[in-house]
Structure formats: structure tokens, C-alpha cells
Amino acid sequence: MIQWLIQRYTKGQDPNSPHTRDIVGRISGILGIFLNIFLFVIKFGIGTIVHSISIQADGINNLTDAGSSIVSVISFHFANKPADQEHPFGHQRTETLTSFVIALFLCVLGLRMMEESVLKIQHPNAIDFRWITVLILVISICVKGYMYAYNMSLSKKYGSSLLKAVAMDAISDLFGTSAVLLSTCISPMISINLDGYMGVIVSILIIYNAFQLIKETMNDLIGKAPDPAKIKALKTILMENDKIFGVHDVMIHDYGPGQVFASAHVEVDAEDNILDIHDSIDNLERMVKKQLQMELVIHMDPVKINDPLTNQYRKLLKNAIKEIDEGWTFHDFRIVDGPTHTNLVFDLVVPFDEKRSEKELIQVLKAHMKTDKQVYLVVTIDHPMAGA
User: What positions does the domain Cation efflux protein cytoplasmic occupy (predicted)?
Assistant: First the structure.
């Protein structure tokens, strides 16, 4: 049903456009509101009748899910707003902020449920088994399974962290309700009320998923390393141009779908015509925007490609680095040759976990440089940028 609604209201539109995402978010959110309110009414009602704290808590959880769906609908609306003077990078991170708020609510809910469940273990109620309870819980599991499936599918298709958060919330509810169902069926058989224990399990699941969502959304807000596939796709496009001989210092800032900004340093032949290179770079920036939906800024580094002496020292440096650590790389290589010594000027890229100081790194590198002439290393120590 949801796929039919989305196709009806987004027919012929770009699936990556903010307007399409707004429609998808609204449809998903409105359906979530109705389904969660339905589950709250039937579960809280039967939980009250049979005096089951875990069923009541599960129903209250569904009510908060309905509230989260309302917030998600509002969030998608604000994320659809175009960039303005105060927010030149758009409003797409509203989705991420909303995901973070949902995660905080889940955490508070889980802690509250844990407290009530412990009290239920200390003061258990009489066991009251009814088949209507089993039926309602089975219906709830089926509904939550459906909600997980469509939200996760849409989150992958449209790259939405908010829909993924809703999907993870649904799957935690599914497992939690399954635990309650297990308690309802087993308790009468063993004459021990497992309601409180299952409530603890439900609360642990909720808290765990809440912390996972908090971690994921915090990474998005702080700024995490981009998808390696994006880096590879960007480098592939750049390296296919015959004016480009190397790519490094790639940075990608993701503010949400349609608001991705990137920069890259490219090595070009120092002897080539600067106007021709500039034209190629302009074409590459437009190509990347069209194919990858990225606003790319390219910085060019002129290097000597066919100079025998430069190539000799470049090979010497490459072999030395390979002997020390294959995880090291270098770029922006050039030489300044003189009568008594030669300066090798370059950027050395080492992993973030490298413990040696800059002075120690240069000493190690120089010890592996086998040359008859006096060589001075003018090195800028760098760390990988987005795996570049």
C-alpha cells in the first residue's frame, strides 16, 4: 500500500529531490501515526484489564512512537526548505536532529520501563491468561514487522537516517512484544509471573537501540568519514581525465541529500597549458555535480611529469616509504636541486594512530633514502582525508 501511495504522489519526480523526500517522509510518518495509535489503544486496554505492566508499557511505547512519527513528519517538512541566508547549506540535517531527539526519548522510556519492571519483579501480580491477549500481541508483532520492513526499505532507497531510526525503533518493539508474548504464554505453565522479567528485557532492548541511534546521529552531526564508495566514484571520474595524474586530500561534507560539498587536490603537468587545465577542471566539476550530486571544488597542484631527476627522486622516495610502512603515502612532490644538495619537498600521509613525532618520522625516512648526493627532506606530515 505504501509503495502505491508513494508512486502515485511522486510519479515522474527525481527520487533524490527534497520534495520527493518530503512526500515519502509524510506518507511514512502519517501511516506510522495511525498504526501506533491503534496498537496503543488495544495493548494499553488489554494490559489494564489483565494487570500486565509489560503489555501496558509496550502500549505506552507505541504511543511515544506515534509522537515520534508526528515529529518525523514535521522534520521532513523543514528538511525540504531550500537554503537561505542563515542556512546556506540547506536544512537537511533537521532529519538527523530529529533522529537524535527520538533516540533520547527512547532512552528515557527504556529507563522508566526498567524501573517499573524491577518493581513488578519485587511485587508480582496474579497471573491472568487470556487468549485475547495473545491475539493482540500477535497482531502487534505483525504490524511492527510491516513497519520495520517499509521504513528500512525506504531509508535505503532515499538515504534517510530518520526513516532508519524509525525502522530500528519498530524492530526493537517487535522483539520486545515477542518477549511479552512469551511471558504471557509461559507464565501460566510454570506458575511464575515472568511479566517483570520480560519487561526488563524489553527495556534493555529499547535502551540498547536508543544508544545505537544516539551514536549514529552524533557521528552524522559531528562529521564522520564519508562512504568509501563515494570516494572511489569521485576519484574514478577525476582520474579518467587525461589532464589529471593524481588525486589526494579529498574531503566530503555531507549536509544531507542534495547538499553534499566536496573538495579535492589534483596533480597536473606543470608544463601543460594553464587555460586548458582550467577548462578541464571546470568540466570535471560539472560532471561530478551531474553524476554524483556533489558541489566539487578542485585545487590543482602542478608537478613535473617528464623530468628525469624528479622521477628519479620520486621513485627513490616511493621505495623508501614501501620499506618503512605500506600504509604511508605521499603527494605534492617536487625537488629543488642545487650544487651541494637537493631538497625534496612533499606531503607525507601517515595513519592517525602513528605515535612517532614529526622529527622521528623524517629521521626514519631519511635513513631509508639511498643516494650519493646530500638530500634534505622538507616534509609536511599529514593524515588521511576521507581515505584519500
Answer: 226-302
Report which of 319, 299, 276, 302 is spatially closest to residue 388, judged by C-alpha positions. 299
- In terms of DSSP bridges, do strands 341-349 and 329-337 run parallel, antiparallel, or are they unpaired? antiparallel
Determine the distance from the C-alpha atom of residue 185 to the mean position of all C-alpha atoms in its chain, rounded to a whole number: 39
- Domain 308-382: CATH architecture, name and number where available: 2-Layer Sandwich (3.30)
Give the residue extent of every domain in the chain: 2-222, 228-303, 308-382
pLDDT digits (tens, 9 = 90+) for 171-182: 878 877 887 788
Cell numbers at residue 377, please? Answer: 627532506
pTM (two decimals): 0.64
**What nine digits make up the cell of 221?**
552531526
SS3 content of the chain, % helix, strand, coil (to 5): 60, 15, 25
Domains 2-222 and 228-303 share a fold: no
- The tens digit of pLDDT for each residue in 46-59 reads 888 877 776 787 78
DSSP string, 106-153: HHHHHHHHHHHHHHHHHSPPPP---HHHHHHHHHHHHHHHHHHHHHHH
Q: Which CATH architecture has domain 2-222?
A: Up-down Bundle (1.20)
Average pLDDT over residues 259-279: 91
Grid cell in block for residue 280: 578541464
Architecture of domain 228-303: 2-Layer Sandwich (3.30)
- Residue 60 in grid coordinates: 505506552
